[in-house]
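Box 3.1. Reading complex inputs
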Amino acid sequence: MSLHLLTAAGVVIGFLYVIVVLQLFSARRRNSMRTSQRKRLEQQWLPILVAEGAEVPGVLPTLEGRDVIPFLTLWNQLQESFTGDITRRLNEVARRAGVDLEARKMLDHRGLAHRLLAVSTLGHLGDQHDHDSWDALVRLTSDTDGLLSLAAARALTRIDAEAALPVILPHLSDRDDWSRNYVLAMLTDLGADIVSRPLTAAAVQLPIEKAHRLLQYFSVTHIADAMPVVRAIIARTSDVECLAACLRVFADVADLDTVREYLRHPSWQVRVQAVNVLARLGRTDDYPILLPLLSDREWWVRYRAAKALCSLPGVEMSRIRTLSAKHSDPFARDMLVHVLAEAGA
Amino acid sequence: MSSGSLAGDVVAFASLIYLLAINVAYLTLNAVSFVVLRRHKQRQTLGLLSTRFSNLEIPISLLIPAYNEEATVVATVRSMLQLTYSHFEIIVINDGSTDRTLDRLKEAFDLQPFPEVIRRRLPTKPIRGVYRSSTHPELKVVDKENGKGKADATNAGINVAQYPLFCALDADGVLRPDSLQSITRPFLDDPRTVGAGGIIRIANGCEVVNGWVVGTGLPRHPLALMQVVEYCRAFLFGRLGWNPVNGLLVISGAFGVFHKETVIEAGGYRHDAIGEDMELVMRLHRTLSEAGRPYRIVFAPEPVCWTEAPEDLKTLRNQRTRWQRGLCQSLWLHRRLLFSRHAGWAGWVAFPFALLFECMSAIVEAFGWIYFGVGYVAGWVNLDFALTFLFVNVGFGVLLTVSALLLDEISHHTFPRQRQIFVLLVAAIVENFGYRQLNLYWRVLGLVQWLIGTKASWGDMKRTAGWANQLPSQATNSNRA
């Protein structure tokens, strides 16, 4: 019986081994073919895609079916690397090579990579008259895959930023899987002139717990649009994260009295943000107000208070040095010495 | 069974079934890894959605605990200073070295005493001083009393770190220029991520210039070569396969990134832990799942850290026994994770897997070799059965290694030359005759040492630092001036 077992094990393992080794060499062959294909495409297309100043040749090389994906990958990489005239040239070449049609077809492909490429391509092409693609991209912003939905949102903003914002803004407060950093980058690319009003208006209409999520993007807004919203939210909330997020936005000296109230807040996360506002906007007469915070029980508050003191207008470093030498609290003293050393003073 | 004894039959079949079970489990993990890798590659199609995100990278503190690392520490720091990451600091923690580690750093980077006010959130041995480099403001060196292990030194680094993420590294680690971008990507992609580990590869035999691995090669020393194969297996399917179910139980202390506040809330690295890296990850699983907090601990298949593999038996034995003790201790300390109501796949699958197939396999496999070997000589196990055991054991071992090489080919194409692949295929077979048994012996030894209560300490790593010597000493200074 054990001999049968040995034979069976041998056949199974041997079979699997042969398959895996064949796969290994086949993967190496595919890798090498992909590299040659990419090199060939780069040789053939790069001079056409990125030749500055020169006209796009009248006749373009034929793009074979198997070259569409590597071509689109290269094309999208170039789109991400350049701005201005080159991107217009890239779009012209893409349309004339017919990859816009390929991209539209790929929107319905089963593979995620194909759909991501299609979404990105359509975004870069920015065809505002292509209503079918627009509708498909709008649908994709609700896709369960976070990356695909975010890529669709980005594509929409590239096609028509103003029309895209009403589609995207509800997702910003609802979707947990949209990376804050990616969204911030997308909004930063659009610029405050486009983002500011729709974003602040959307925040006003939301309940506090959802508005809080939009507050983290207020760094992309104009302060004149943001502050009325922030003032309204801060007056209605006691949530620590929300208060801290509001304070991060404060940039108007008219609000300094409100900010100073938060220096005594029980949560250090709020206190530290209030200190940061004083570091940005504070006046010389904030000096005595900040002094007690050098003895705060939280390291970050002491550290930021020391930094804020150094940055107040009209406060000389010699005054801080004297303070550090004479302060009765060793924690405050050490922190002042630390911050002075950081400042090289 | 020549004797036909029922007990013998049962033991032999039980051993074979265990052997089959462990290998089928690994093959399953392997298959999952293929799927994960395929999906991962699809998601990487567009690179970082856009290359314009560089200003939004999450600031990170690189923590390099060093104990008697005078041979490599300067070269490591020089290499780290060249990383292409927008916002990072390097903190070297000199854990009471008895050699010239601190002096070498002072000389190389013009370190000046700095009156740092340390936020002592994790208890550590006293800190003697903090230094800052006058030539590289992003470099700090913490000089502390010896804390008998990497855990205490890393905790001191966490206390000094000012950024939201920290990356725990070994003092001989060599990163790729983009390693930090790749390993912090899971934190950008998913805000629930609290830990991410990357791949550790063997630097022996590689060409290192100016602190970067510019050419992958294979070591000439057979011990190091076997470890290349071993690391390939351990890091690719051994970890990647756990990603979809959030079941990763270990992030290597040589290259792992963590969310600092979460680690501090969990109590930092445990001083008496032998495998402090695994213990921390298990504790994060246990505490976060018990608290009902959504979290992710992931393995990132792209970021690579190169490290030197021991080429002498004594160092390798010390390393392997320490790993086994660390595994046993971590599993024991966090036994509450096993089948815990909230623990998910980590407690219901990954933990039993680690217990059955990684911890206990040392005993079962050793028993199998002895039972079938002695049994054959004594005449109570017949040749067919002994051969079946040997064949299944070796055959599956080779199969798993070749699968790992396939995964590596798909994900990294680390070994570009055909000859390298042939050498690795041969090594995949050869390691089963001698090296694997030696490892098995060390694992059993580690288990015994754990049972008798050997304490945690710095691993006694003998470094040749061959790669460090390839560094032109002034190269990085000029880059960062």
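In summary: Chain B touches chain A through 46 residues (CB under 8 Å).
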